[in-house]
Design brief:
Rossmann fold; alpha/beta; about 130 residues
């Protein structure tokens, strides 16, 4: 008898968020939704984790220490040449920020105060199905 073993690899979601409470909530939610969560509390760690782990999707805040979300996104798109889906989850309603990250290739721009976790889940699922 021939046995075939298929390993199902969980999709990796990298969360780059400096607010510890929100980061924890997102990590718990991502795990409950069936994904492998990776977390970074600042842009430097986020960029390093992205390079090392090559996640399937990134949830990125713009206002983070050491490297801004825009700098991290620039590294992901330009330096690393990755087209991995990126969801910006921020408090910034600055139209300049929004325009800059849209030009750089973000897939969604969500405001923290207006976006419940279920909406984030829907966005993650939709983007992972597209990629």
């Amino acid at each position: 008898m021939i046995s075939i073993h298929l390993e199902v690899q969980m999709k990796k979601i990298l969360i780059i968020e400096d607010d510890p409470e929100l980061r924890k909530a997102l990590m718990l939610s991502v795990k409950q939704w069936g994904y492998l969560g990776l977390e970074a509390k600042d842009g430097k760690i986020g960029t390093e984790l992205f390079e090392k782990e090559q996640p399937d999707l990134v949830v990125l805040d713009l206002a983070i220490p050491f490297r801004t979300g825009i700098e991290v996104l620039n590294d992901i798109r330009i330096k690393l040449g990755s087209e991995v889906p990126v969801i910006i989850l921020t408090n910034s309603e600055d139209t300049g920020d929004k325009a800059a990250v849209e030009i750089m290739g973000t897939n969604r721009y969500l405001l923290k105060v207006n976006t419940p976790l279920e909406n984030i889940k829907s966005e993650i699922e939709a983007l992972l199905q597209q990629s």
